[in-house]
Write a structure and sequence with these properties.
about 240 residues, mainly alpha, about 0% strand, Hy-lIII, zinc, transmembrane, membrane
């Protein structure tokens, strides 16, 4: 561990026990802020594009839901990491934003599924999953409220279950367009989770996790834009 401190002192601090929160270095704090702040404006612009491409009220509502989830993720993450970096006597505020940062991930997952559950013809469970995915997000919120940072493995499993369970319905799509992009985006999220738990083992681990999240979100956004909101897709849906 001394070797790590000597070699990576500016870029990584000592790993902490599972019941404590890792304290990033100044460089890691800056990277954590930048890697998600960079995507706030693009996420807002991209969400607005979906809104203007909407052909009916249901598409408009879905664009708003997805847009709030996408931009909310990057915004809350940036706010939390900024407060964490610049804190002085703001321990309570930092803790609050950390909880919000964890909670918004659940709603981002639910919002990411909304376009597929609302706009694509799915199997018989689709209607139930439209509200069940939000119940999962609410359950995650309650968990964070009562058990924040206590059981990190349970937290990781909870995020994974929330992300995978609705996918079982998505696989029932009669129209398979977009399924490849959904799978690729899921792979990026899954690979990023390796870094999510690697603070103190890999320099800039959390910032790398942020990059994987941004890439996964970008691929999923492309699939939603390309297969659910483009004029060509709208014409195909109208002709059916």
């Amino acid at each position: 561990m001394d070797f790590k401190k000597t070699k990576y002192g500016r870029f990584m601090n000592k790993r902490v026990s599972s019941d404590k929160r890792y304290q990033p270095t100044e460089y890691e704090h800056a990277a954590n802020c930048a890697t998600h702040a960079l995507w706030i404006i693009p996420s807002i612009v991209g969400s607005s594009l979906l809104y203007f491409l909407s052909d009916d009220q249901w598409e408009t509502i879905t664009a708003w839901i997805y847009g709030f989830g996408l931009s909310g993720l990057f915004t809350m993450s940036t706010v939390f990491h900024t407060v964490s970096w610049k804190k002085s006597h703001l321990r309570t505020v930092e803790q609050l934003f950390h909880m919000c940062d964890r909670i918004v991930i659940y709603y981002f997952i639910a919002a990411s599924y909304a376009p597929w559950l609302n706009l694509r013809e799915l199997g018989p469970w689709a209607w139930h999953m439209r509200w069940m995915v939000w119940i999962l997000a609410c359950v995650g919120t309650v968990y964070v409220f009562f058990f924040h940072e206590r059981y990190k493995i349970v937290e990781l499993i909870s995020y994974t279950a929330t992300a995978i369970f609705p996918a079982l319905v998505i696989l029932s799509m009669h129209d398979r367009d977009g399924l490849f992009e959904l799978a690729v985006g899921g792979v990026f999220y899954s690979l990023g989770m390796v870094f999510f738990r690697s603070d103190g083992l890999i320099p800039f681990a959390h910032a790398i996790w942020h990059v994987f999240v941004a890439m996964g979100a970008g691929i999923h956004y492309y699939a939603i834009w390309r297969y659910l909101y483009t004029p060509e897709t709208s014409q195909m849906k109208t002709s059916r």
